[in-house]
């Protein structure tokens, strides 16, 4: 079975035989897959009237467990955005009734962001939709193939996850 990346690699090998284009065979496929995954995620989130960034914040709070709350700093760490961006996102989610701000009992100047019941329901529903989309993308891969692919991708991504900033 030939795909678009095979054609792209063959063309580069023909045009630039002096270069080793082997990385394209893996990373061009990862890039193309990422675009398909992005489309599938947007579809899953839009079915629940969420933007991808809203899903990220809501599910970070949902994963925190009862009472589904985190400090803005903890949300920054999990979503990899700046503090100004996070403040704006919390404001927008609070206006929609998906999160609420509460005083932090351990820090008089601090706040906690808590998921509302509606926010929890939207996070849960959109996660179920996302998983259905992702299962479709994985298609006919066996459980063993999925496990192997996950392990190989972990080898590639783990060093990036351990880089500060």
UniProtKB/TrEMBL annotation:
Q: Is Zinc given among the entry's keywords?
A: no
Pfam families assigned to the protein according to its UniProt record, in alphabetical order: MarR_2
Protein keywords: DNA-binding, Transcription, Transcription regulation
| GO MF entries | DNA binding; DNA-binding transcription factor activity
Q: Where is the HTH marR-type domain?
A: 23-158
Q: Which PANTHER family match?
A: TRANSCRIPTIONAL REGULATOR, MARR, TRANSCRIPTIONAL REPRESSOR OF EMRAB OPERON
Q: What is this protein called?
A: MarR-family regulator
